[in-house]
Amino acid sequence: MPTQNTHPLKSIPLHLPPGILDSPSRQRRHTLPASEFRCLTPEDAPSVFEIEREAFISVSGTCPLYLDEIRHFLTLCPELSLGWFQEGRLVAFIIGSLWDEERLTQESLTLHRPGGHMAHLHVLAVHRTFRQQGKGSILLGRYLQHLGGQPAVRRAVLMCEDVLVPFYEKFGFQAVGPCAVTVGSLAFTELQCNLRRLASLRRNSGC
Ligand SMILES: CC(C)(COP(=O)(O)OP(=O)(O)OC[C@H]1O[C@@H](n2cnc3c(N)ncnc32)[C@H](O)[C@@H]1OP(=O)(O)O)[C@@H](O)C(=O)NCCC(=O)NCCS
């Protein structure tokens, strides 16, 4: 099973013990990065859930992952997550896990199947104040590249409302039909993306 120590994008959060007086050089080292992409850890779960609460619960009364489920996936497969932090604050994130069937089922909402070759993107969300600035697109692009660096992962899959299908199509996802999963009265389209095809398209276009 993959461990956190193998994350190519992982960086260590900086914490200053209170009351410690730092020299100017130490203070510089503890300045939070203006912009940082890294895999998430279980400690990031509250910040993730805060964004979900506004993005989903306030709109539909439900959300893709509740706090314990966020912690569950960030413990089991943090390498399938990616967060964008600005000055230490989470502004956008994706959480994924592995799936080993051709299509999503109700079980895929809660399970991580380590032997699977398909990354299931449970949730992508951008903090309300940072939407419509290209951040969701940048993060998704980086995430797909990050997945491309994991040899076991061949495809990516997600379910979304019809209105967002064109957004995902821009990244090489293709609709494969109505998703078998429903949440309350909400229905979703299932989309899949062939990561190898995407990588070869990137190579051919020189990106
Ligand atoms: C969907 C989301 C991740 C997009 O991130 P973003 O940073 O706002 O998106 P970008 O600025 O990179 O791109 C904007 C594009 O997103 C798409 N988009 C975003 N929200 C949309 C919505 N509610 N309806 C339709 N299209 C939408 C459009 O294609 C838009 O392009 P346009 O402005 O040219 O029409 C973000 O709006 C969000 O967090 N929404 C709430 C949570 C959510 O719905 N997540 C998706 C779950 S599948």
Automatic annotation (TrEMBL):
GO cellular component: cytoplasm
Biological-process GO terms, alphabetical: circadian rhythm; melatonin biosynthetic process; response to light stimulus
Pfam families found in the cross-reference section: Acetyltransf_1
Matches recorded under InterPro entries: Acyl_CoA_acyltransferase (IPR016181), GNAT_dom (IPR000182), SNAT-like (IPR051635)
Function summary: Controls the night/day rhythm of melatonin production in the pineal gland. Catalyzes the N-acetylation of serotonin into N-acetylserotonin, the penultimate step in the synthesis of melatonin.
SUPFAM superfamilies for this protein: Acyl-CoA N-acyltransferases (Nat)
Gene this chain is encoded by: AANAT
Molecular functions (GO terms): aralkylamine N-acetyltransferase activity
Source organism, top-level taxon: Eukaryota
Protein name: Serotonin N-acetyltransferase
Pathway: Aromatic compound metabolism; melatonin biosynthesis; melatonin from serotonin: step 1/2
Gene3D superfamilies xrefs: 3.40.630.30
UniProt similarity note: Belongs to the acetyltransferase family. AANAT subfamily.
Subcellular location as annotated: Cytoplasm
Annotated catalysed reactions: a 2-arylethylamine + acetyl-CoA = an N-acetyl-2-arylethylamine + CoA + H(+)
EC numbers for this chain: 2.3.1.87
Alphabetical keyword list: Acyltransferase, Biological rhythms, Cytoplasm, Melatonin biosynthesis, Phosphoprotein, Transferase
N-acetyltransferase domain ranges (all copies): 35-196
